[in-house]
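Deliverable D5.2: sample structural annotation.
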Amino acid sequence: MRIDAQHSRRSFIRAVSVGTLAVGFDVTSRAWAAEAPAGIGADQGSDQGADQGAGTGAAADFRRAPHLDGRLLIDPADLAPYEDDYGHLVHRTPKAALLPGSVADIAAMIAFCGPLGIPVAPRGQGHQAYGQAQVDGGLVIDLGPLDTISVDPATSTATVGAGAVWSAVLAASLAHGLTPPVFTDYIELSVGGTLIAGGLGGASHQHGAQVDNVLELDVVTGTGRVQTCSAGHNADLSHATLSGLGQVGVITRAVIRLVPAPTSVRSYSLAYPTVAALTAAQRKAVGDGRFDWLEGTVLPASGGGWQYILEGSAFYDTTPPDDNALIGDLAYVGPPQIQDSGYQAFVDDLAPTVAALKASGEWYDPHPWFNGFLPDAATDALVTDTMAGTTPADLGASGLVLLYPVPTAKLTAPLLSVPEGELAFLFAVLRTAAPDGGALPAPQLLQANRDLYLRVQAAGGTQYPVGAIPMTPADWRTQYGARWRGFQAAKQCFDPYGILAPGQGIFAPAH
């Protein structure tokens, strides 16, 4: 197998973004939809304050809704964006969507919905892959309006609304020479959205997940009560909220730890012929902490097969790092790629690619993504076997595979479920199910995700619950293990009506 010279993940996605991409998903026919949207009556009103006396559909459910500072949308045209997400696999139709003008709006509407048994789903940027932030016949809370950001250089913290996106947090922090310690690869996600899942990125081997860098939260519980919580205050609520998939409350505000921001980044892409060779180098790099940012990518190789890429980066201000000291002993093959960039451009590297994918239409194709945590001892064999049964066509035009190590001691949020052992590997198979025949159909890929998940589970692994994996109630109990009963108790305590985030399917089936 020949190792390509231009072998970095970043080079690959840039090339894909300017190449020929698949035709966009037909949102009218919903050809790949796992579920069709429910019918919507034509006589439903448009906003709060519109005709709410019709007595049918959404108007009947919400005609006694409390006075709000914001808007309550009930017109079908206004609700259409809320019955889809980035996965484009599941489509559920809400009866209303709240654009809050204040946190009090969220509290009032949850308090209204609870006794009536109306399900409620908080939504950030809609980047879920499997309907996690959708709700059938209930209320979607659009957190976008809660986007305030305040940076305090004296305490090295940022206080942000849950609807703020991480790119805006980065810009506001950099104005003070500071930065959040961890970013996901794509930084147009909302703060609230990543904090209910975890928030993993290239700096997680140094700083844990984004949830591990939260100092305080404001949460509206399932009874409509607004509570402030942290590790030292209302800890039960804090622990059940961070990585809690929205089951106990809606995050409205977070206080995030900041660290000094570097000026520049030197990035290295190193090629390896096998999974085992890549992970050996990654383990060495994690062991001595030589990189500030560390991931791994599996990409198609010229002539067939796969190439395995270590992607490591070192931050600096004026003096670049010593290349030999960083990569001289990592036993890669072929010439390394070495690139310098500014810190902000490095963190936001995907922005041009995302713009191109949206312009071409591929952003709107189905994305049946798999994301899981593998135990260290099972990683080499499981990934090798998976890639042996995978072709580039299976991934779609812009699909790729990520593999990078995270020391489990860095992941302190109780509900971010990872395998036992000192090291886990995040394994992400990021497929695109394009409807042009260039990739497998979405239902077949969902079944492939299910099959892979069962193998991961049998090996002692877990899912990182941001992808599209069909799960059973028994799977969720296995996912949380000894923490399951505590999670159940928190759900009953903070969401006694059982209305929050039903799309996750944890405590009731997601239909």
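Annotation notes: The two ends are 45 Å apart (CA to CA). DSSP finds 17 helices and 19 strands in the chain.
The annotation will be released with the project's public dataset once the embargo ends.
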